[in-house]
Design brief:
Layout: H1 25-37, H2 47-58, E1 63-67, H3 70-80, E2 88-92, H4 97-105, E3 109-113, H5 124-129, E4 135-138, H6 150-159, E5 163-167, E6 175-176, E7 179-180, E8 187-191, E9 204-208, H7 211-221, H8 245-254, H9 258-276, E10 282-284, E11 298-303, H10 313-322, E12 327-329, H11 338-341, H12 361-369, E13 370-374, H13 382-399
The structure holds pyridoxal-5'-phosphate.
Pfam family, one: DegT_DnrJ_EryC1
EC number: 2.6.1.50
GO molecular function, one term: glutamine-scyllo-inositol transaminase activity
């Protein structure tokens, strides 16, 4: 008889996980309100303005600018500081492509540095070692919402005159040492893409405590026009990164659930960690004491195939999915993507040189061995957690027979 669901057996997970995105009457009412208002863009509407005010407060920052998506938010941040050709921007070796893509889209050169193998966040000492006279900015990524060692990163940056742009795409409502992610650096960026912890399908934001940065960013995101311009004055080179009123309407509702969901995921992630303790070959992402609010955008763990009779990670993920557990392999080291390897920067003069890379041992190991579970797996009940571990054990038992 077939046992594993992928081979025709019965899936272990019978009661489904909660769906994502979540919505209720609040989303419906706010979006309907925008439709009826006939003010669908930020210039005449009030929702984007209201969202920006509330999200800035929520993230412990003075200013917030809503934009089209998270990738644009990083590009916008780099543009504010005039970062471009010939400049170097330090980023972690393992992250989602956008962190690097935003840099190359600005014609600047990404410099990859290694991560902590446990927390999967950029190592401050590796950042410091990679600094050259051309280094203009650093983009630490709060991986899965685990805070980077921000006080050290900011101190090194300050000493060397380097801009700090925090990629908090996974960190809505997250904290490092009781301070909100995104509020340490010159600028923090967030994503509201469909899978993110609060979402409007696509969307992004830039937060800052600096009025000048905010003012300049505002002009750039609105095609280079000064605020309230009526005569097509374009004072600097800009782009259209404007968030629309529908996005903001959804986000105003979504923001009301973030804290509660963060708490629930943290409780469940801690429990899942305990349940995995006796499963050989599974090592979850670690947690430093400083991660006072760890949002768990993903539940990440190393998979060691030697405890699964050599079953390759990609195959294991397929077995896991068939059992009803939404899983995915981790991001590869950025420069291992075809995009970087073939220097395909859209004719831009980036010239990434893989031979001159810094040591990326930990990033490579993470990229090649980590699996992540969708955060909705942590948003249900304890039975869900037992099912996750049950599915892993079921596959392990079959392959080790
Ligand atoms: C999702 C994500 C982004 C970019 O977000 P988009 O809104 O999809 O453009 C940037 N950085 C990281 C680490 C992300 O996961």
């Amino acid at each position: 008889m077939k046992v594993l669901a992928r081979d025709g057996g019965t899936p272990l997970k019978q009661k489904p996980f909660p769906n994502w995105p979540i919505y209720d009457e609040r989303e419906i009412n706010l979006v309907t309100e925008v439709v009826k208002s006939q003010n669908w863009w930020r210039v005449t509407g009030s929702k984007v303005k209201e969202f920006e005010k509330r999200f800035a407060e929520f993230q412990g920052c003075s200013y917030c600018l809503g934009v089209t998506n998270g990738t644009s938010a990083i590009e916008l941040a780099l543009s504010v500081f005039g970062i471009g050709e010939g400049d170097e921007v330090i980023i972690p070796g393992m992250t989602f492509i956008s962190t690097g893509l935003a840099v190359t889209n600005c014609n600047a050169t990404p410099v990859l540095v290694d991560i902590d193998p446990d927390t999967l966040c950029m190592l401050p000492e590796k950042f410091e070692q990679a600094i050259t006279p051309r280094t203009k900015a650093v983009i630490p990524v709060h991986m899965a919402g685990h805070g980077c060692r921000m006080e050290e990163i900011c101190e090194i940056a300050k000493k060397n005159g380097i801009i700090v742009i925090e990629d908090a795409a996974h960190g809505h409502g997250g904290e490092w040492k009781n301070k909100r992610l995104g509020s340490f650096g010159d600028v923090g960026i967030f994503s509201f893409q469909n899978g993110k912890l609060m979402t409007c399908g696509e969307g992004g934001a830039m937060v800052t405590n600096n009025k000048d940065i905010y003012e300049k960013a505002y002009v750039i995101q609105d095609v280079g026009r000064p605020k309230n311009d009526l005569i097509y004055e374009h004072v600097i080179r800009g782009a259209n990164y404007r968030m629309n009123e529908f996005q903001a309407a959804l986000l105003l509702a979504q923001m009301e659930r973030v804290d509660e969901l963060n708490k629930l995921r943290d409780k469940h992630a801690t429990e899942l960690h305990k349940l995995f303790a006796d499963v050989k070959g599974i090592t979850p992402q670690g947690r430093e004491e400083g991660a006072t609010i760890f949002t768990h955008y993903m539940y990440m763990f190393y998979y060691d195939k030697s405890f699964f009779s050599g079953l390759p990670r990609e195959e294991f993920v397929e077995y896991l999915k068939a059992e009803g557990i939404p899983a995915c392999v981790c991001f590869p080291v950025l420069s291992d993507t075809k995009f970087f390897a073939e220097n395909d920067f859209n004719g831009r003069n980036v010239n990434y040189d893989k031979k001159k890379e810094h040591d990326l041992t930990n990033s490579k190991k993470a990229g090649e061995n980590i699996i992540w579970l969708h955060h909705r797996t942590l948003e249900g009940d304890e039975e869900d957690l037992r099912d996750i571990v049950g599915a892993v054990k079921k596959i392990q038992n079959e392959f080790n027979k």
